[in-house]
Design a protein that fits this description.
The chain is an all-beta fold. Helix content is 0%, strand content 71%. The strands form 2 sheets. The protein has an 11-stranded antiparallel sheet with strand order 4-3-2-1-11-10-9-8-7-6-5, with no helix packed on it. β1 and β2 form a beta hairpin. The model has no long low-confidence stretch (mean pLDDT 95).
Length: 285
């Protein structure tokens, strides 16, 4: 947890997806000045909800994060939310997690003063269970799961984030404006897990953003290329941190049309179009 007088936040992102349904849950704790609060956000393909809780509703013990009656951990999640406009309840169990070989931030995890640090807890795992959201049942029977987290003070001013699972594996890519000690640079982190092998893209490994604009981003690193393109803008509003306060509105498509291509040594190892991509495109270009 990040401590200090300045605002801070710590949030987790759990995505559960079958062939026909997508449910993402985002628990978070945040503090501005002396005011500490927490929240649970739920997003589906059709809608999103944000529920706020007092700071004392947040607890952590034995690897389990609790916000009110809601529970989140490596074995699964339990939702019990009953607020005006949202009633969500149910349990989801997770299979074995698939972590990366080492922290996605690499040596940058040790750099002080970063406004946001990213982590990936599982690129792909199985999900079982049922959750009812305002009377609609989301049923998962060996479905696909993904789990990541962010902590720091604020989300980047401009960024692209996308994640998608596919039969042979899963991928994630993020490109963002990074302020540090008085200057800005465009940083990137990403990974393609394909047939059990990990291909990592990162600024600390020499990755460069060669193209960005109109919902499209392309990252080059040595003889590897990764492209992602948002094909439809269906983003639903979510709250995001600015100096610890959940005062910013971003938009995420939990399951939308997108196109991906991964090449290495001039060979295309992965190329597909899907309607199950998650995408946040917060660049003005």
């Amino acid at each position: 947890m990040i401590l200090g007088k300045r605002g801070w936040f710590y949030g987790w992102y759990f995505k559960c997806q079958s062939d026909t349904q997508t449910l993402a849950v985002i628990p978070a704790v945040h503090q501005t000045g002396r005011k500490k609060t927490c929240s649970v956000q739920i997003i589906t393909k059709e809608q999103s909800w944000t529920v706020s809780f007092p700071g004392e509703a947040f607890r952590q013990r034995g690897g389990i994060t609790a916000i009110g009656k809601n529970r989140f951990g490596k074995r699964g999640i339990r939702l019990t939310v009953c607020e005006p406009g949202l009633k969500a309840e149910g349990k989801l169990a997770f299979g074995n997690l698939f972590p990366l070989r080492y922290n996605i931030m690499g040596p940058f995890v040790l750099v002080p003063f970063l406004e946001c640090r990213h982590s990936i807890r599982s690129m792909k795992h199985r999900v079982w269970g049922n959750v009812s959201v305002n009377g609609k049942t989301f049923s998962f029977n060996g479905a696909e799961g993904y789990w990541e987290g962010d902590r720091g003070r604020s989300f980047p001013r401009e960024y692209v984030w996308t994640q998608c699972s596919f039969p042979e594996g899963a991928l994630m890519l993020s490109v963002a404006d990074i302020p540090i000690v008085g200057f800005h640079f465009r940083g990137s982190i990403g990974v393609v897990v394909l047939d059990g092998r990990e291909y990592r893209f990162a600024t600390y490994l020499g990755a460069k953003t060669s193209e960005i604009g109109n919902g499209r981003v392309k990252v080059l690193q040595g003889r590897m290329e990764l492209e992602a393109e948002l094909l439809e803008k269906t983003g639903k509003p979510l709250r995001a941190p600015a100096q610890g306060e959940m005062a910013r509105t971003i938009h995420e498509s939990a399951a939308c049309r997108a196109r991906y291509r991964f090449r290495k040594n001039g060979r295309t190892l992965l190329a597909f179009e899907t309607d199950r991509a998650s995408f946040e495109y917060e660049y003005r270009i």
